[in-house]
Design goal:
By secondary structure, the protein is of the alpha+beta class. It is built from 12 helices and 8 strands.
């Protein structure tokens, strides 16, 4: 699930921690959300899959095809693991093209194993305990699957602003067709579309700098790999449904329509 624009606000707090060593190869981070009241959360695409415990259901949340609204229940806290971009298909055990955008109950994919994890999660009284249950669940899953790491390596390489798909394929020792097949299976979109998502995610990481007047939108667009600020504007509207300026104002707490 995409990282929120602001990790702290008057309504919630979001914190990340380093995952356990046993799952670090496929898990990018463990996180906790202090929720407060029930409300919809705007989630931007980042190419990753999160395993999310919201106090009621353990779900796999996919965000690669565009912005989505995820309903947060009223709870003291939520906890999750963010799988590395490119690890989703292998860990979940199905082509990511078959996973619907948004939240899919993990019991629909892993049945008894997921139901057992939900039972243990329901008994947790702290986010740390819940993260430990989630890490044990993924570690158990990894004993049943073989990971070649190609899609994770491909996503990492495609995340570079100057990356070209033909060069990435050559570096990984596969054809461009093979690269497309691996990335579509493990991420849900092809390499070109993944590059667009990763470039947009680089922009999101710089929204705070623009909001604090430490950088201009034009500078950030260039740094993120866009041709120009207009290119950033088009892609931002396509992937988030709003303009770069509106996202900057949203970070600053001034939700002005654009």
């Amino acid at each position: 699930m995409g990282v929120p624009l602001r990790r702290r606000s008057g309504r919630s707090v979001y914190r990340e921690t380093t995952p356990a060593a046993a799952v670090a190869g496929v898990v990018e981070s463990a996180w906790t959300g202090l929720v407060g009241r029930s409300r919809p959360l705007r989630v931007f695409p980042d190419g990753c899959v999160d395993l999310v415990w919201d106090g009621r259901v353990l779900a796999a949340v996919a965000t690669v095809r565009g912005v989505l609204w995820h309903e947060l229940p009223s709870a003291d806290w939520t906890a999750g693991l963010r799988l590395r971009c490119g690890a989703g298909g292998a860990v979940l055990g199905l082509p990511m093209t078959e996973l619907a955008a948004g939240a899919t109950p993990l019991r629909d994919l892993w049945t008894a194993r997921a139901l057992g994890a939900e039972s243990r999660l329901a008994a947790c009284v702290t986010p740390r305990e819940a993260r430990s249950v989630l890490e044990d669940l993924v570690a158990e899953r990894l004993r049943d699957v073989e990971l070649d790491g190609l899609s994770v390596a491909a996503a990492r390489a495609l995340g570079e602003p100057s990356a070209r798909t033909d060069r990435v394929a050559a570096e990984l020792g596969v054809s461009e067709r093979g690269l497309r097949r691996h990335v579509r299976h493990d991420v849900g979109v092809g390499p070109k579309e993944l590059q667009r998502v990763l470039r947009f995610h680089r922009f999101l990481k710089r929204v705070e700098a623009v909001a604090r007047d430490h950088a201009s939108l034009a500078d950030v667009a260039a740094d993120a790999g866009y041709a120009d600020q207009s290119h950033l504007g088009r892609e931002c509207r396509r992937l988030s449904g709003t303009s770069p300026g509106a996202l900057v104002r949203s970070w600053a707490g001034r939700n002005v329509p654009d």
